[in-house]
Design goal:
546 residues, mainly alpha, two-stranded antiparallel ribbon, 21 helices, 69% helix
Amino acid sequence: MATTGTAGTGPTTQKPREEWTGQVGFIIAAIGSAVGLGNIWRFPGVAYENGGGAFLVPYLVALLTAGIPILFLDYAIGHRFRGSAPTAFRRIRTWLESLGWFQVMICFVIALYYTAVIAWAVSFFVFSFDLRWGDDPAGFFTGDYLQLADPGVSLEFVPSVLVPLVAVWVVTIAVLAAGVAKGVQRANMVFLPLLVVAFLVLVVRSLFLEGAADGLNALFTPDWAALGDANVWIAAYSQIFFSLSIAFGIMITYASYRKRRANLTTPGLVVAFSNSSFEILAGIGVFATLGFLAHEQGVGVGELEGISGPILSFVTFPAIVSQMPGGPFFGALFFGSLAMAGFTSLLSILQVVSAGFQEKFGWSPRQASVRLGVVSAVISVALFSTTTGLIALDTADQWANNIGIVASAVLMSVLVLWVLRRGPELRYHLNTVSTFRLGAWWQVLVAVLAPLVLGYMLVSRIVTLLVDGYEGYPGWYLALVGWGTVAFVVVAALVLAAMRWRRSPDDFVPWPPFPPGEAVQGAGRTPSAGGSAARRPAGTAGEEAR
């Protein structure tokens, strides 16, 4: 049992913090989080539209200069300060707790609609066996299945979406209730290998389709002139940023479950390059099948519509499945892969929310999963299983990702590294526990380059949304669902940060000591948190080091 002093109340006894069973469990869970829906339906289209094979150059640059450095920043914060995003940021400086809750609430919002997409994938997995979409996949998806209505607020539920959505929530709550090692890690150990095997089979099958070579040529033929377009580079940074599950609490929370003496940077490299490898594999599979569709229709690959996003998955792919030999099997593999990729990412998103509430209010994993899961499920069903669910999902996703997550990354870099100047401490922590050591270049990348690039992305997107709107939706609807989502996240973060902790997290001493060689004495609250606190019981610092 770990003994921890609670500010102003003396020592109390609490259960040891949950941990991954080992490095492999952590890596598998982190890859499961990073590999999600965007790897399958976003990367291939983005690469094709931004220079084809030439896009791999800015993509690799973005990975090395922003993706991996920010991933390391998340790891350092979570592992050094041993908590969910609110706890870790509070231990850096008390007033920074609200940024942690901002990240938690972004995850909460994303989970509400992410679950709906997984439910669609589960439905289409079943539909694959009898090709239920028939000869009109577009009409089936938006009409028969989603029963799509005009933008607005609808209370007309769609049973075909509601039933699988409820089922996904039940399974998710059950996994989260089992805890980090027995729930999240075990689920990833099962689903990630299944995902990789299923997708490899799918890719190999697609390579032997007529027209597959034309699809691959369309994807990988480089347009070197595109490298002179700033928008191509922004697209690369955007893809890496959204693909790696960074800067919105996931990797902070996951790193906090690692043992005190645990390698961080080498596993980070494994996670980052595994994620990118899966994206390239997805690109091969997607464009080989698009080449087949173009061959069947007698058109060029560039003339096809719906080569990215939900339309690629739920309209274009069903059309391909209907025309190819062994279509039902191919469709089951694709939609099964989509569901598994989404589910492993969903677990990581909801673990951020669960961990934050566990630590703030003293809930057990089971209490947090049930209480938060039921509330989330009710909201998710009410918003995304109705006839306006697709439009609400599209709008909320646009604002949560392009405004919420990007703003979170910029704030984290600026506040932690510029304002509080914690870069040297975090770099020292990573180098102390890891085999792959970081130089001063890491601080330059996360403190200068990343916030500049992401800040430009954030400002340009805000201006575009304000001036041009989004997808032609009514202004009042965008204000309610889009900007309303951002407002909800901000207000909820401030309210949660102001609420009282069940057990104060402030009586904490980071390990290893910084500056190097500084003796860890029985201090109370970590000096970085500011203020005074109860004296730490003798021997507690040794507990923190283990």
